[in-house]
Model the fold of this input.
Amino acid sequence: MSDQKRNFIGGAWVAGDTAANINPSDLTDIVGHYARADAAQAQDAIAAAKAAFPAWSRSGLMERHAILRRASDEIQARKEELGQLLSREEGKTLAEGIGETVRAAQIFDFFAGEALRLTGETVASVRPGVGVEVTREAVGVVGIITPWNFPIAIPAWKLAPALCYGNTVVFKPADLVPGSAWALVDILQRAGLPDGVLNLVMGRGSVVGQAIAESRDVDALTFTGSVSTGATLAMESAKLMRKSQMEMGGKNPFVVLADADLDVAVDCVTQGAFYSTGQRCTASSRIIVEDAIHDQFVAALSERISALTVGDALDAETQIGPVVDETQLAQNEEYIRIGEAEGARLVIGGERLARPTEGFFQRPALFADCTNDMRIAREEIFGPVATVIRVADYDAALDVANDTDFGLSAGIATTSLKHATDFKRNAEAGMVMVNLPTAGVDFHVPFGGRKASSFGPREQGRYAAEFYTTVKTAYTSA
Ligand code: UN1
Done:
């Protein structure tokens, strides 16, 4: 295919089998044709990254700073176009697509700065006349495997620190959304990365992801995606004694107390559960509501849901874009059936919606009368489906919030300082939100969770150095 967007290996654009990138808002719209790498190309990419490592890990800080800065500037300058590409291939609204693109630019800006702030420690030795220095060095070849739901921000928050600290990269974006990833690699290579420092291998997890996971030449592996794949990749990594970082699912609680500002609570849940079509690991999917405000809250939320405009991601009126593909939509529908069979009450939504173009449109769904042991309250659905669980008081709410296999984000709507403080202290989650949605995080502070949600060091901000560097302790006798 002459118009094929190719893989990038060792500084050259390399053709492969072609896959069409389809717009979930309009199945007749082909976003582009993208190469799929095979296992041999993935190995070439790993070899190129390995060969480029010695020089890049010793490169000057101003060179790294300038490349990351240029990338940030170009992403920012092209935010409308890149945001549109993102929304067209993934289905989140244009406002969300542009917002995510700006977030990617901010992440590159942050790590351009971090490149100039590499520090270590000088420590007195216990032995007289001996000095100790603690420094951080690049890890080596980093394998980066990213999901479809944040086609530019998640690649940015893994690529930027990897490159900032002097690692070389083999990058496999999700097969469903190669467009934003390809654009990002194109920007970074034109920003001046030496050949082999960043390699793009698009394609299937079972082929490309597998080749990266199995390679002894990949020194660190970072992944965002499902729990089952994350667990497999962590085990593969442990067998090779390789550093790994897994960001996986969530079943994030959002507690609504009787003393909450009702508008704030409804806003937080609408955004947290349904924006980005509910396709976020940080989505609020268990809404835990105190009895005294329960009926009023469910009525207000259901009214809000019925007013949400579901449609083409690129239409300015749209508030909720399509589900990403048929497989995900069928999974959402299966969970609607499961919820009804379990005895939960479907208050609103869940049905497919017809729009002028053929796409994967679904009305956001709200279940009430749920118990925390139902499958719809325990398993990550990854769609616009939320469950409401009624509780007697704050203590019961906290118990239910923490009764989950996951621990990524937890939120509460309350005007009580006492309950907000207690929740921040006792919620078993990596991130806690007070009067804010569980999803939608800052780019410069740690991101990650507990239990089945995350494995390995945190991402983002200065904490990213924990994963993307390795510590050296040097002793010198005077
Ligand atoms: C956010 O909520 O702002 O895959 C980010 C995900 C997360 C990112 C969420 N890793 O949904």
